[in-house]
Specification:
Elements (H helix, E strand, L loop, with lengths): L13 H10 L5 H19 L2 E4 L1 H16 L11 E5 L26 H8 L3 E6 L33 H8 L5 E5 L6 H7 L2 E4 L20 E5 L2 H11 L17 H4 L8 E5 H5 L3 H16 L3 E5 L7 H16 L17 H12 L2 H14 L4 H25 L2 E5 L15 H5 L6 H6 L3 E8 L5 E7 L5 H13 L12 H4 L2
Parallel strand pairs: 2-3, 2-4, 7-8, 7-9
Antiparallel strand pairs: 1-3, 4-6, 5-6, 5-10, 9-11, 10-11
Amino acid sequence: MSWSGGPHGAPEPGAVGLAARVRAGEVRAADVAEETLERVGRRDGELHCFNVVTADAMRSAAAAVDRLVASGADPGPLAGVPVAVKDNLCTRGVPTTCSSKMLEHWVPPYDATVVTRLVAAGALVVGKTNLDEFAMGSSTENSAFGPTRNPWDTSRVPGGSSGGSAAAVAADLAPLALGSDTGGSIRQPAALCGVVGIKPTYGLVSRYGLVAFASSLDQVGPFAATVADAALVLEVIAGHDEMDSTSLDRPVEGLLDATGSGAGGLRVGVVADFLADASADCASAVRAAAEVLAGAGAAVEEVALPELLHGLSAYYLIAPAEASSNLARYDGVRYGLRVDGDDVEQMNARTRAAGFGPEVRRRIMLGTYVLSAGYYDAYYAQAQRVRTLVARTFARAYERFDVLLAPTTPSVAFPLGAKTADPLEMYLADLFTIPSNLAGHPAMSVPFALDPQGLPVGVQVLAPALGEVAMLRAAGVLEAGAAPGARGPVASRSEAGR
């Protein structure tokens, strides 16, 4: 059984098709669960997508779905569909570690709202996926439990911080996954792993139960092998949640239908400034994507938005400042790791030194510095002004365009260890994704091409706040026009050789 696709005339591929077959009684959720667990057991030792696999809970959920089907009830739009969950989303009774020694043994007493909604829709949670510690990184090399490897080439990174989720979908270990996106942590690994990744409008999806990194930037979103599958998941997890004060009280409708409604009449702006800073292969993919949209009836033209390039420097002041505040709660007293000392101050210092890895400590120190009395106006306040500049730049652009088109990343997946010694070089991996987080706008990555080495290249579609329908219209057209073989799932080269 495969959910990744099939020959012409076969049942509809992906999570959409699988759920339909389970609901119709053509496929048993229990069989889906067993095959999924077999795949994970066979492949994950090589890739390290998962920090924990919840096999017993998955089997129990699958049995419940099958009982509902047998009784004539509808288990939900994701009936029997396996989903991997990033390990910074709370899961009741299952460790939520954020890939950090600080929370290695913490077991939440509640589920994140998005997890509750997935389960209510009939999804089967496979387990918790690896990430850069506390979602701080662009390669999933900052995990306290070791890196995740890219299924396209296991010598390369999967991107980050949601690298485990992206790699799980790319390797066919689950058709769906959830990640979080603070500055590109869904879209960047989606591009490097050849899958679809969506960062929704800020507030469209509840953050309740997401372990906070930077609360004004964080947003939960889906990974999938197809645009339609990602849209379906977004429909399931989106919507108002009274447990999240930033949650938007707006209906979420028409996302799945939008993926097949074409690009006729869409106004598309190609962000010229991003093309100039992308590799030749990434820039070429965007130009080819623009031609596909134009051929589908969209009006396409280049647009200069140089102010967006200032987003990177603003982000790396604002996000660490919020992280410094959010991570202050890990003090060795209330929960998580505790390393004893002669007094409370020493205990706190020892706990944080032992519990946090180098990248998390770097960002905490940077954030504490920019919030300090002598530097607040020069750094943090100025970064917020740049954030406003980015938002106003987008606002002007969206007066002319329905969506923007850009590279997702400056390059394809890079080798493990290639950028760990140079934090600035690593931070530049998020150059094209950060502006949408600063503005709170939706954006997504669509796998579109392959570079000469056979590595996937993602194209990014950006839209104004609550512009998901237009974004998904463009994404559906791009998916149909993508190069053959440009999207996962794939076997790694070592797996393919066996």
